[in-house]
Amino acid sequence: MKSTEFYKVLNSVITDKFSDAGFERVKSATSFWHLKLGRKHLFYKICVSIKSNYDPVLGGEFLIRVNLLPKNVPDEVGFSKGFVSYMQYYSEQDLEQMKQIRDTIVRKILGQTEFESEFDRQMFNLFEPQFKHELGTPFRRHFVLGLCYRDCEDIAAWGNFLAKNIGKTVKGIQNRPVFFHDN
Questions:
Q1: In whole angstroms, how large is the CA radius of gyration of the chain?
Q2: Helix (H) / strand (E) containing 87
Q3: Of 64, 102, 113, 159, which sits most exposed with the smallest number of CB within 10 A?
Q4: Are residues 66 and 43 in contact, defined by beta-carbon separation less than 8 angstroms?
C-alpha cells in the first residue's frame, strides 16, 4: 500500500470531525492539522512511519505527533518542544478500545497461512513472536507508539477512533496541557 492510499483513506474518515473541532488542514504530504487555541497553536500530525515501510504481509505503522506551540511553525511539529500525548486525555475505555483495534489487526496478520513467496513466509516467521507479544498489551497515556495497520479497513478503524476522540484531546489541552517533559 502506498502512503497516498493510506492518507486518502484516513482523511476520508477524519476530515469532517477534525474540521468540526475547528482544525484546518496544513499543506503537507501527510495528514496534518492546525488549530489556533488562544495565543497558542495546536498541531496534530498523522504520518506513516519511515522506519517501518509497509509490507503486504506484515502491514505498516503510522505515528501521531501532537504539539502545542507558541507560534504557527509547522516545521517544529514532531520534535520534543511542546510535544503532548494525544492519548493523555483518553478514558480507560478509550485505551481499551485502542487495544481491541490493535489486537484485531494483529490477529489478522497472525492469521495468515498462505504466502506468495518463501521470503514472505520467513519474514512472517521472524516477526510472529513480536506480534504475539503485542496481543493484549495495554495502551498507556504517556507511551506513544506507532499504530499498526494492514489494509484500508484497519486505517478506517483507527481513523474513526481518532475522529471520535479528537474533541477529548482538544478539550484536555485547552484545560491543562501535559507536555511529555512534565511526565
A1: 17
A2: none
A3: 113
A4: yes
